[in-house]
Structures are given as structure tokens and as C-alpha cells.
Design brief:
Aminopeptidase, 7-stranded mixed β-sheet, 5 helices, 31% helix, 31% strand, binds coenzyme A
Amino acid sequence: MNSIVTQLGTADIQDLIDLEKMCFAYHWTYEQFTLGLERKAFKVLGIREKGRLAGYIAFSLIEDEMEILNLAVHVDFRRRGMAGLLMDSAFEMCINNGIAKSFLDVKESNMAALTLYRKYGYKQIGVRKKYYPDTKEDALLFRYDFKQGREYNILKGAK
Ligand SMILES: CC(C)(COP(=O)(O)OP(=O)(O)OC[C@H]1O[C@@H](n2cnc3c(N)ncnc32)[C@H](O)[C@@H]1OP(=O)(O)O)[C@@H](O)C(=O)NCCC(=O)NCCS
């Protein structure tokens, strides 16, 4: 795939909101995106295809921890490896910034995301009962340790 991952900023917020509306019952507001990006509370990486925002990943980097806050790919572009590409770029940034571990939560019914995160080496570490207000579903909590993980070793050149 020839898609290019770039860091997104305040000029991309409307496109991010449009994509979030398509993918999630709840989406961040314009103000939440603006404040977060301006205060550098999180980073957003995205892929554009012919000008359209095809996918993005939002994550925070605090001390030696990374948390995936959101990851979404437009329905027209799914199953083409875009989420994988976004994960690879975020992981590379983590490794370059000395991040040791990563956390995320995901709905227990979200098979696509669960399969993706497990493929990346995330291990389930807990459950938050009825965590999501829209469906009252449980959240599954996952953790990934960079220094033990496959991607860390590949990027560091170890086989
Ligand atoms: C989850 C999501 C981001 C995956 O995006 P994508 O670009 O289609 O994923 P990729 O093509 O990069 O797939 C990478 C791997 O993830 C897994 N995967 C992705 N979609 C899947 C699906 N529908 N069913 C099962 N596994 C899936 C597969 O292991 C896949 O590897 P493979 O294609 O070699 O089998 C996308 O389905 C999405 O935006 N969903 C709605 C938003 C969402 O739920 N985000 C996650 C919030 S925690």
C-alpha cells in the first residue's frame, strides 16, 4: 500500500469529527480536539486518500506510557491495512520516544478491533463492567509492553 501517514493538526479537526461521527456513537467535539491538540494532550496521525481522511489514530504519550484514545478507518477504506499502518506509525513514534507500555480499552463486541490489537501483541489485563454509556457494554482493558514485543524487536533490528 502506498498510503502515507502524517501528523494531523487543528486544520484537520472537521474531517476528524466527520469520520468519528461515522464510526462512533459518541465523538469528540471541536473544542475537545482543539484544546487537546493545542495543549499537546494527544497526538493524531492520519491517512488521506485523494484529499479524503481515510483513517486516524489518536493517542497520548505521558511519561513512558502510551494510550490509544481512538482509532478509526472510513468504511470505504477498511480491510486494506490502514489501521495496521497507523498502528505501525504510532508504535514507531513510541519506540523513538522511549515509551515502555501501551494501554487501551475496547468494547467486548468489537471483533475487528480486538483482532487487530491482539495481532499487535496486546494482552487483556482487565474488564470495566458496563463501561460504555451507549451500549452499557463491558470495556476490555489491554496492555502492550514494548520491550517484550514483536514490533519493538523488529524495529530495533533484532530477529
Ligand atoms: C477496527 C478498524 C480500525 C480496523 O481498520 P482496518 O483499516 O479495516 O484494519 P486493517 O485492514 O489494517 O486490518 C488489520 C488487521 O486487523 C484485523 N481486522 C480488521 N478488521 C477486521 C474485521 N472486520 N474482522 C476481523 N479482523 C479484522 C485483522 O487481523 C487485520 O489483518 P488482516 O487483514 O491481515 O486479516 C476499523 O474496522 C474501524 O474503524 N472500526 C470502527 C471504529 C472502531 O471500532 N475503532 C476501534 C476503537 S477501539
